[in-house]
Structures are given as structure tokens and as C-alpha cells.
Write a structure and sequence with these properties.
It contains 2 helices and 3 strands. It is an alpha+beta fold and about 90 residues long.
Length: about 90
Amino acid sequence: MDAAEVLAEGVAEALLVMGAIVPPASPAHPARAVPALSRVRAMTQWEYLTAPLLIHNTKQILDNFGADGWELVQIVNGPDGTSLVAYFKRPKS
């Protein structure tokens, strides 16, 4: 089996996992009809937090939010141009 056939078989298997029905890549690997709905997972619901970030104590502030389950998404300049604003997210419980 050459590289293109290996790649095609891998793509076919990935599509099967995602719930698509694809034709077999080779006679040794027949397609399996997998109902699409049986493979669907519930989407993660997120909650968000925006917080000012004090430059003199950045690590401690980020560590505290991380300990509470918040993931840092982005830091941007605040509205006054001299401060920082941190954006966080975490899965809703």
C-alpha cells in the first residue's frame, strides 16, 4: 500500500468516527454504516470573565483565576491605554 492509499484509508476512518458514511478505501476495509447521531457529543457550554490585570502582581492574579478553573483567553489594553484587561473562560457547571 503506498502513502496515498494509507492517507485515504486514514481519512475514511476519521470520517467514520465523525459519523459520515464513506465508501471503503480497500476491499479489506469495508465501510461501516454508523448513524451520525450516535457519535454526536453535547457541546460544551462556557462562562466568561473579564477582569482588570494589575501589572505589579500579574502572576499571582493569573494563578488565582487558574486555581478557580478559569482559562486565560486573551489580555488586551484597557480603555485608558495604560491598564490591562484579561479575558477568561471555563466550562459551565
